[in-house]
């Protein structure tokens, strides 16, 4: 398994489809340390939901408006991940970053996509805790 200190590699990596993937999520692809695809993210100030492209690579979660866009990073170190019913969205979850004090609200189009992302983020977060006390990650 790759460590969290590995640098971001190029998109020339070989990717495979998520197992149990439905046809309604064609953008979700995965390797041993990567998952990517479109999700909805709530803007911090306007609170409007915008379609964003997400990339989870090793222990880093990035997002942008498109795969070619400028990537912004969501810190996962000591972050809390949980389901939420913000704005009555059925498949929403939140990432509460203790590093920057911000809460990121993310919405998937279905339960399978939500669970896949939450589990992958949870594993990435756990892998990022080098030498620190073990932190169990519970996807609720």
From TrEMBL:
Signal peptide (UniProt feature, chain positions): none
UniProt domain PH: residue ranges: 32-126
Compositionally biased residues, Polar residues: 1-25
Listed PROSITE patterns: PH_DOMAIN (PS50003)
InterPro entries: Boi1/Boi2-like (IPR045188), PH-like_dom_sf (IPR011993), PH_domain (IPR001849)
Region (Disordered): 1-31
GO cellular component: cytosol; early endosome; recycling endosome; trans-Golgi network
Keywords for this protein: Phosphoprotein
The name this protein goes by in its record: PH domain-containing protein
GO biological process per UniProt: endosome organization; receptor recycling; retrograde transport, endosome to Golgi
Keyword Ion transport: no
């Amino acid at each position: 398994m790759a460590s969290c200190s590995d640098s971001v590699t190029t998109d020339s990596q070989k990717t495979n489809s998520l197992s149990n993937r439905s046809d309604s999520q064609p953008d979700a692809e995965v390797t041993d340390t990567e998952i990517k695809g479109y999700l909805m993210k709530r803007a911090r100030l306007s609170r409007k939901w915008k379609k964003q492209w997400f990339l989870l690579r090793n222990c880093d979660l990035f997002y942008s408006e498109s795969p070619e866009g400028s990537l912004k990073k969501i810190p996962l170190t000591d972050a809390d991940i949980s389901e939420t019913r913000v704005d009555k969205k059925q498949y929403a979850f939140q990432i509460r970053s203790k590093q920057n004090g911000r809460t990121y609200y993310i919405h998937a189009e279905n339960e399978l996509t939500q669970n896949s992302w939450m589990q992958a983020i949870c594993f990435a977060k756990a892998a990022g805790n080098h030498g620190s006390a073990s932190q169990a990650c519970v996807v609720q």
